[in-house]
Amino acid sequence: MAGNSKDQLLSMRVYNNLQSLGCPLLDGLYLREADSVQELLCSPSLHRTDILKWICASICPSLKVKFSTIKATQNEDLVQELTRFGHEMMLCKANDQDIIKGLAPPLRQLRFLEQLLMVIQTDSSINSRQNSSSGNDSVRNDDLLGELFQDHLSDLDMLQNPVCNPWSAHIREHLIRTQSAHNKMNGNHSKPSDFINRSDQHSRLGSQGEESLTEAMALLQSTQSTLDELHKECEFLQSHSSGSAVALSPCALKVAISDMSQLMTAFGHIYNTDFKAYCQRTPPALNSGASVFQSVHQLLHTCNMELEALKQMSETSSSFTQTVQQLQTDKRYWSKGEKHTLPKRLEELKNRYVAFLSHHQS
């Protein structure tokens, strides 16, 4: 029952998300019971396939062209295309066609649909934020341009109103003679001053063009070096001839960014509710009597070692006493084939020694 209720709640949530996103395939459907919604979303049907096509095309609009080229009878090609898209989105395996056909467990199908809808919701929220902020772009661009060119207004004025030093006297005379000789040969009656002005203008434009070209070349070289460094840092942009590198699609990047955003949001909530109070506490102060506790610990350790040695000594003494008692009480064969114990043998030896002493004294 718990699994069924969870499936029904998830199916209603997916159905409501489809309605909020304006899915046209739900127009005219007034489903109120969770069983009917689950049957629509988790049972194989043409309507379910069309809903899945609409979701995938909403995420990646280029799929609309591919879907239009697939005929209605080519159902396997459509399933393969949807499976490939789900694999690129890192939501299913490369050969997981049951989840596309509607043959997988309902809970797995509903989670797959919910993750796809989350990508659409993320894209729509990003677009809404961009549209809301586009109204102030012109104002901010003007402020930005004013801030950037504030320190270079004098240079701009000089570029708009250039000033060139006049020709020297000997160069002016040389140009006048050259121009008059040229006019006599060609029958041209233009004034020498016109030639001088044109020469001044060409020389001025030539010098400025050379300087601008030099600056542009330097800027292009610095930009190229910066791009090369960025290309080296971005390993996924480097081409590999072996074909081992995995191509990153924009849809897969969207899913990764969405997952990372959810994880960061969850961590921020847990930090603010559970961890923040502990992280802001002051660290505990070290006790000045730590050396005393260390000395007591060493003394107790030494005492334990001595007690262990005394215990072993007591066990050794007890074992030695038991061995001696066994030697005293066990029977042994001595002379003449008789059995005697150690105390009895000692008593005999003592008596013989006393008799020997008394015999010699007499």
Q: Counting H and I runs of at least 4 residues, what is the number of helices? A: 14
Beta-strand percentage? under 5%
Give the distance, in angstroms, between the N- and C-terminal Cα atoms: 117 Å
Rg (C-alpha, Å): 51 Å
Poorly predicted runs of 5 or more residues: 240-246
Biggest pleated-sheet summary: 2 strands, antiparallel
The side-by-side strand order for the widest beta sheet comes to 1-2
Give a summary of the structure in a few sentences:
This protein has 362 residues and is mainly α. It has helices spanning 2-20, 34-42, 46-59, 63-69, 75-88, 98-101, 106-133, 137-148, 153-160, 169-186, 192-233, 250-279, 290-329, 342-361, and strands spanning 332-333, 339-340.
Provide the descriptors you would attach to this structure in a database record.
two-stranded antiparallel sheet, single chain, mainly alpha, 362 residues
Report on the structure:
There is one protein chain. This protein is mostly helical and 362 residues long. 73% of the residues lie in helices and 1% in strands. The protein has a two-stranded antiparallel sheet with strand order 1-2. α1 packs across α2 and α10 crosses α11.
